[in-house]
Amino acid sequence: MNGFPYVYETQVRFSDLDAMRHVNNATFIRYLESARLGWWLHVTQREGLDALDMILARTEIDYRSPAFFGEAVRVGVRCASLRRSSFGLELRVEEHASGRVLAEAKKVCVYYDFKVQRSMPVPETIRAQLRSQDPGLREESA
Length: 142
Hints:
Layout: E1 6-11, H1 25-44, E2 54-63, E3 72-82, E4 86-95, E5 101-113, E6 118-119, H2 124-133, E7 138-139
Parallel strand pairs: 3-7
Antiparallel strand pairs: 1-3, 2-5, 3-4, 4-5, 5-6
């Protein structure tokens, strides 16, 4: 997946389907969330739930094509923008064999301190990690 430095892969399972025999919209959200969390652990080079010091503030999804039982699905993730305490992600869901685009999404994540229950500025160490993974990253003030 060109332009996406992190790719999450999964297989469509029977339990992912709805009555129409294609992947349910809610399942796409699960794919996107699994990719987001995997991406974060990859970028920050950390492991485990304690390393998840960001929260999801917004998700926007455009569904492009249905996915079916047995298909291999991959989700590309890239960081598109970086602000003081948040960052924007772009994600693309594709069927692996054909490259058919199944969905495209945007997410806004907020760097978060769970102990004090509030957003925090993204530390410079993490900013550097984000920059190194996504050279086209837009840095915005505010």
